[in-house]
Known about the structure:
Shape: flat
Number of helices: 5
Radius of gyration: 27 Å
Structural class: alpha+beta
Distance between the termini: 73 Å
Amino acid sequence: MSNIGASADLGDDRGMTAxxxxxxxxxxxxxARPLGRAVRRREAEALAGETVAFVxxxxxxxxxxxxxxxxxxxxxxxxxxxxxxRSLPPExxxxxxxxxxxxxxxxxxxxxxxxxxxxxxxPPPPPVTVWRLHVSFWRPAAAExxxxxxxxxxxxxxxxxxxxxxxxRAIARQPLRPVRPQQPLDIGLFERRLPESPHIVVPDE
Length: 205
């Protein structure tokens, strides 16, 4: 009777390769001198000797066109241009090119105009965008930068520029703080005032 328990012999599993993400304190180190590379968190923690977090961050200069970014990062990302096709092995695809707005925030969605026989207004000119390399890697806990982040409600009101991923994570980890000091209760939680005599407090059961 044959042994069918060895999954490595199954044809569907043969040749499957996962991405080997670098283990490094920052994106620059992930590109140049990582501590190693790992698929799973426990493998990355074994290399780092401590807990790790999976992060993604842009690195390097911004390029005005995708072609310029592809030329600058040859060998780091897939190149799909005619005559320059290059496909990386599956385990090396931990970098990608990301297009972002050069300055300010992305344009807000247009609202229907419903004027002059037109449902939608004339679209605004497209924003100026740039291309940057985005690196995904395992970052040891000791390398996480300490960021003094504001409360989310304050950041939304005051920030005019898009916040980076590190700032957003720091805001999410901030403890909730009251808008103003809490005032003492004038009556107990299980008490109420009589409607006909508001100056009288009685138990509410």
